[in-house]
Amino acid sequence: MKKAILPVLVLVLALSLCACASSVQDNLPDNQISASPTPVPTVFVENAPMPTPALPLDEVPLETLMADFATKIQAGSAGSSLKAVGQAVRFMDWAIGTYMSEEEIFAAVDFYLSQLDEAAYAEYMMQLELLDYSYQLLLTPGQEELLATAGCAESNYPWSDKPLRAAECFMNAAGLRATYQLPLEYTESVDVYADLLRNYYLAFNEGWDEKFCTEKGLNYMFIMEFLPYEPLNNLGYAKHDINGDGLEELIIADMNTPITAYQIYTQQGGQPVNVFEGWARNVAYVCSDGSIVSRGSGGAAITYYSYYKLDSATLVPFGSVIHEGNASPNAPWFVSQDGDMDITNDIPASQEQAQGIIAQYEAMYIPFALTPLSALAGQ
Questions:
Q1: What was the pLDDT predicted at 28?
Q2: Cα–Cα distance, 42 to 65 (Å, whole number)
Q3: 65 and 102 in one domain?
Q4: Nearest to 317 by CA among 298, 330, 336, 345
Q5: From CA 186, how far away is CA 168, in angstroms rounded?
Q6: pLDDT value at position 102?
Q7: Is the entire prediction scored with pTM above 0.70?
Q8: Dist CA 69 CA 90 (whole Å)
Q9: Are strands 271-277 and 371-372 parallel, antiparallel or unpaired?
Q10: For a disulfide at 308, which of 155, 163, 315, 352, Cβ 3.0-4.6 Å?
């Protein structure tokens, strides 16, 4: 049902070997950059620019895209269709990644169009009609050849086989939809998580055994860890669209520290799918930019922060910050692009550098308005 394709990101933690002091390193492709422990990359500094991902998330303002449509889509000129395909690729990347509300999209479109005179407005609407045609075409299968011809073979196609919420809102705001109705899967009231939440309630309330928990798709380790701690009052749940694709994820988190998630589920084909299983020493945090941080511990000397993007029903790692005090007691901090805990191919970092990266993401942790699991009694 949902297919929000994210590219394989390099170090979106603001880690990239591209900014090493060596000018030779600057020009090497990622797969040829040395992982030598020296020198330490300068991009560890706070607020260093991140590599530009193929999905702009909310980095490119909608007004900038709209201005580009006016100059890069030439309706009626030679090659206009292929140019529109290229802009439709950018438009769909924006629609997948944006965190703009419908009200914000309407306001931005209305403001831009209000600045155009009558002739410019008429021309712009023809450009948007061509953009809309290309956007709808790219929602259908078999468009690889078209994308290759338009110079977009490396795009994120297929974004989805259903209309994209933000794109439909944009087209409606521009007056290109006679009626505005989101696809059924966005509007139906069926709660795909209802049975799952009910099973968690019963498992905690009745002390289900491992076999029964597994049959019901529940994390038994998580249940056993929290059984002694009044889980029905101390654990709660919330629903939140993490990656901006219009479908909500289910987060089971700590009522006392509502940024701390122990379980994260997404939905696929109308069914809940587990994407993160945690316990007391392995928890997750959801960030306002759509990333998910997993913090784990292997004892007093080992702590790791792994960073992910949610791609459909899969967590795709894009980096880690690791404290490994056993293997490297004198220089325990490392950063990684591969997401695993093997420090032999990772990059040494200072404590200040590592903690700076951790702090940047901590500032984006989302506190959830949780409903306690006890509220499910009698349902």
A1: 38
A2: 31
A3: yes
A4: 336
A5: 12
A6: 84
A7: no
A8: 10
A9: unpaired
A10: 315
Pick out the chain residues at pLDDT < 70. Answer: 1-60, 75-80, 178-190, 339-340, 379
pLDDT of 162: 82
Backbone region of residue 230 per phi and psi (left: phi > 0; alpha: psi in -120 to 50; beta: other values): left
Nearest to 127 by CA among 168, 85, 74: 74
Residues 212 and 231 in one domain: yes
Amino acid type, 308 = Y
Residues 208 and 72 in one domain: no
Q: Give the per-residue pLDDT at 195.
A: 92
DSSP sequence for 231-256: HHHHEEEEEE-SSSSS-PEEEEEESS
**CA distances (Å), 25 to each of 127, 305, 338, 346, in order?**
42, 26, 19, 17
Q: Are residues 364 and 247 in the same domain?
A: yes
Residue with tokens 């201005």: 67
**Do residues 226 and 114 share a domain?**
no
Give the amino acid at 231. Answer: P
Q: What is the pLDDT of residue 100?
A: 84
Q: Which amino acid, residue 235?
A: L
Number of neighbours of residue 185 by Cβ within 10 angstroms: 16
Contacts of 63 (CB under 8 A, 6+ apart): 108, 111, 112
Dump pLDDT digits (tens) for 304-316: 999 999 988 899 9
